[in-house]
Amino acid sequence: MDAKLKALLADPSKKMDAAELSYLAACFRRTMFSVLHERGTGHWGGAASAAELVTSLYFNRLRINPADPQWADRDRFILSKGHASVNLYTVLAARGFFSEDLLPSFRTLGSILQGHPAMLKVPGVDMSTGALGHGLSVGLGMAMAAKLSGKKYWTYVMTGEGCLDEGSSWEAMLAAAKYKPEGLVLMIDYNKVQLDGTEDQILSLEPLRDKLTAFGWHVADAKYDGNNTADILKSFEWMDSDNVWPKAVIYDTIKGKGVDFSEGKNTWHGAKIDDEHYNIGIVQLEEDVKKKEALI
């Protein structure tokens, strides 16, 4: 582990600033790339696009306690796009929910770190995900539970385009707009690329903001760059700026972020990272880590 990274992670109570979060995300993206290469399986594209978002949540925003993963008052996070599990696992390990030594066991027989997160096996996972379109419905249930029990935790649901292609997501949106539970936030990792092609080629969601608004959601006006931690922190400020629920934020991101041959390419949704591509990509990711380390 890099000395600077080790030093940052030494204080679990520290709330990271934008530069520190950017550096952490670069380190985590490098780790994800190496794990996926070593295993020869997994989903790089969507994990890479969400690296800054998940990092910023866990190191700046969420009220959690790794020593007590089932703490009743913790904030909840649902990675509805569960195929990006290597992203969540890397961040959970760094946050102290389990040992980083487990990461190389990703997608191996007997490992708790399977291709999609399992809440009964992995500390820190609040919902077992994988089948797209389920996350928002369960997140609504969690938010409603907080409302009925008088608890103040927030529930964050992260989707990609695939989740929003499912009718169940829009049913959940209608129900959430009716009951308006406090603390429910939809975070959309909008990289506009899916397994078989671009969003436009498969099923266009545009005009997405207008659709969310029409369904009764309070949607951020700003266009936030989900690969820019300063922008992400601004979106957190927007979440705290009023008491109108439920909230949704659309984050523009890049599929396969960090490696030029995979950026914006549907072919790198879940392709095997072979030795040739790994040797090219790891150099770029190492350079990004060094560049961002110099800024903190």
Q: How would you sum up this structure, described in words?
A:
The protein has 296 residues and is an alpha/beta fold. The chain has one domain (18-293): Thiamin diphosphate (ThDP)-binding fold, Pyr/PP domains (Rossmann fold, 3-Layer(aba) Sandwich). It contains twelve helices and eight strands. Strands 1, 2, 3, 6, 7 and 8 form a six-stranded parallel sheet that branches. The protein is globular and about 50 Å long. The protein starts with a helix and ends with a helix. The mean pLDDT is 97.
Order of helices and strands: HHHHEHHEHHEEEHHEEHEH
In the CATH scheme, what's the topology name?
A: Rossmann fold
The figure for the number of domains is 1
Decide which structural class fits the backbone: alpha/beta
How large is the count of helical segments? 12
- The number of strands is 8
Helix content: 40-55%
Secondary-structure topology with pairs:
Elements: H1 3-9, H2 18-39, H3 44-49, H4 51-61, E1 76-79, H5 85-95, H6 135-149, E2 155-159, H7 161-164, H8 167-179, E3 184-190, E4 193-194, E5 197-198, H9 199-202, H10 208-214, E6 218-219, E7 224-225, H11 229-239, E8 247-252, H12 275-293
Parallel strand pairs: 1-2, 2-3, 3-8, 6-8, 7-8
Antiparallel strand pairs: 4-5
